[in-house]
Amino acid sequence: MSSISNSTATQCYHCGELCDDAVYYFDQKDFCCHGCQLVYEVLAEKDMVGYYQLESFPGASQKSTSTFSNKFDYLDDEETEANLLDFKNESESHVTFLIPLIHCASCIWLLENLFHLNASILSSRVDFIKKKVHIRFSNSELSLKSLVTLLATIGYEPSIHLGNLDETKSRKVDRKTVKKLAVAGFCFGNMMLFSVPEYFSETALIAENFRGLFNYLNILLALPVVFYAASDYYTSAWNSLRQKRINMDVPIVLGIFALFFYSLWEVLTLGNAGYMDSLGGLLFFLLLGKVYQEKTFATLEFDRDYRSYFPIAVTRLQQSSEEVIPLRKLEIGNRILVRDEELIPADSVLLSASALIDYSFVTGEEVPVPKRKGEHIYAGGRQIGEAIELAVVKSPSQGYLTDLWNNESFEKEKTGQLVPLSNKISGIFTWTVLLVAFGSFVIWAMTDLSMGVKVFASVLIVACPCALAMSTPFTLGNTLRIFGRSKLYLKNGAVIERLAEVNTIVFDKTGTLTDPSQAKVEYHGIPLTEETLQILHAMVSRSTHPLSNRIHQWLGKRPPLVLDEAREIKGAGIRALYHGQEILLGSKDFAGSVDMPVFATGNQVYLSIGGSCVGMFHVQSGLRDQATDLITQLGDVYDLHLISGDHPHEYESLQASLGRKMKYNFLQSPKDKLAYVKQLNQEGKSTLMVGDGLNDAGALREGTVGVAVTDQVSHFSPASDAIISADSMWKMPGFLDFAKSSRKIIKASFVLSLLYNVIGLSLAIQGILSPVICAVLMPLSSISVVVFTTLATNFVAWKKGLLAPNTT
Amino acid sequence: MEVIFLLIGISLVLAVTFLWLFFKAMKDGQFDDDYTPSIRMLFDSQKKTTKDPSTKPKSHE
Questions:
Q1: What is the C-alpha separation between A141 and A93, in angstroms, rounded?
Q2: Does residue A138 share a domain with residue A221?
Q3: Owning domain of residue A528
Q4: A155 with A223, same domain?
Q5: Interface check B3 vs A, CB under 8 A
Q6: Minimum distance, in Å, between the CA of residue B57 and any CA atom of chain A
Q7: Residues A198 and A288 in one domain
């Protein structure tokens, strides 16, 4: 039997993968697996092949999807269903699914044409950026379970996790600010129009009675601004006053009140114009800054905890039957079945003979660990290979890893000890303004009481820290965008201020400083001939196992060679036949090793030819490309620490490449990591924790700033303050510097806006502040501060090389 | 000059209408997803070219 060699490039019509095992032929098209063909059949039957015309190979390979029939049984559970549905009445239900696969126009087309596949689906709408689909369906004809099954059949299996069930509605808040901005903008614009005649009052363009009307209309328009648009500032100011602190919103509220009531008094008793237009402008610009700072990276999630990764349901084994139950009904002592590629939901003991567990979610190490009967398996691992039976020994929320989330540091909101820069100066600012206001009132009142009142009010009006309050959100908002362009995504602007304070950096090792694809491979044993190397190359190139990939990389480019037969045995290795000789590559038991050196570190892959073991590959994970440079650069400025869950056997080689300045800690459990960072913080340090796995989640949470490193930004990352793309890691010193520069820019813009305040105050004290001056000075100061911060941040970023053209 | 009263009234009504329309659009989620519609609008023409030829071939081209 001659198998298909690597050179025959038959591509699967559905997913575009090379069909190297066998080709499924259907309807004059080639498919790589039965799953892909099935998807095509379903679509072709309903005349939906347009899916394949929008983009070529729009689907994802169906090879590794598990297809057991009762997989979605838990969706029949009423409580689970009620949690998932957005809306339900007697006839129709609405549901929103996250479908990670959504990636192209074909996906949108197919998912929005679901009603062709099943008439019970009323409509479906895709949100491409968030990778979500909103489906309305008739619930008398279609159950949620059948809907999910249908999606899974066409290759778009929604990801349903415990996290989905208690999702918060964070979107609403965002809309509220925009709404307020719209109101403020509307009122501001109209007030400006009504105020224009006032600015030219000397020329008496219009009759006196219009002036009165315009002023009353201004009051009317100011009401929604004062009572609706500004409401956030009142609550914030009130909250900080209750804690006996003065934040930036206190002087703002003072200014708003002074503007409003003084103008009210002016219009109603004196018949003057008042400053309502300035009030509108003030709120408009302030809210604009707020919205600008609220930039979010919609596709990224920063608040995921373990429940977002854990399965929503498990298969429980009864005496003779199996049933799918929601995870929350799982109890200690239950026997569960975990299939290929499924996550282990709770700490358990293995009942099957052997298992192969991939802990890459947890530790970042992607080589699976073999386990034997009776061994303890921690939750969070992924079974690879055939289904295994487990006995649950701890409830899902109390496990070795998940217990981390019961720690107190997850309860409190991370505000840090750090007071935002703007709040620091607002106390001094407010007192100074009040002092100046009362001082000038007293001096004027000695000669003219009504003038004293006027001066008092104008000081408060002009001192309103509009520009001051805007410098922070605009600087931080712009910094956030620049970071985003360099693939460092921060949760919010406050993280920048915390980042600027950092003096200690703690790194996780596996997956953070080391990179699976930078593996070091060493061969021990009988020297290999060129032919053997070629055979090995042909063998490993057909396997997706991480160790095969590493050996494949080590072998480099070799001419293709046709094997008689090659098969990968999951959890064991690869078996191949070449010229009648059996070649085995894999685990110790599989290849049958004799007298090979044993290493405490890394992974060993054994090679046996014709029944006798000839050698062994020793595979160790290597450091990331720029790790050494990065550490040397950072080591000059920051205190560096390394915490790893591994054994200390790599200590010397790490020290050789990363230097002696780093403090090394090994054998750290997830809780130890959290405690370690906590300890540093208690010593008064500001820590930056850099990690990647779920086991770092505690430390990421505890650090002043927690940064999650990931190779693919939209994929997996534990809860953190920021997500950094692994290939931007080397820019870290630049990022930290830039955060510090941002702080300096904020300070500089404070000086600038204070300058405006001094000018305004000097006019106000003399009693010559008029609505016109006010109307010019306020927007001028705001706009110039915005322009200054934007230009300054961009300039600094450009100088630090963070503005390099990027295609994101 | 009295016409100004009327004009002010009209202009305010108009402005309030726009504000109301903006709120309505926001409530409908028009600003929530600003990417998918740009792709979705291409489908309609696509569908015509893939599906219609069988039923009514090139009637309007």
A1: 11
A2: no
A3: 523-541+565-623
A4: no
A5: no
A6: 18
A7: yes
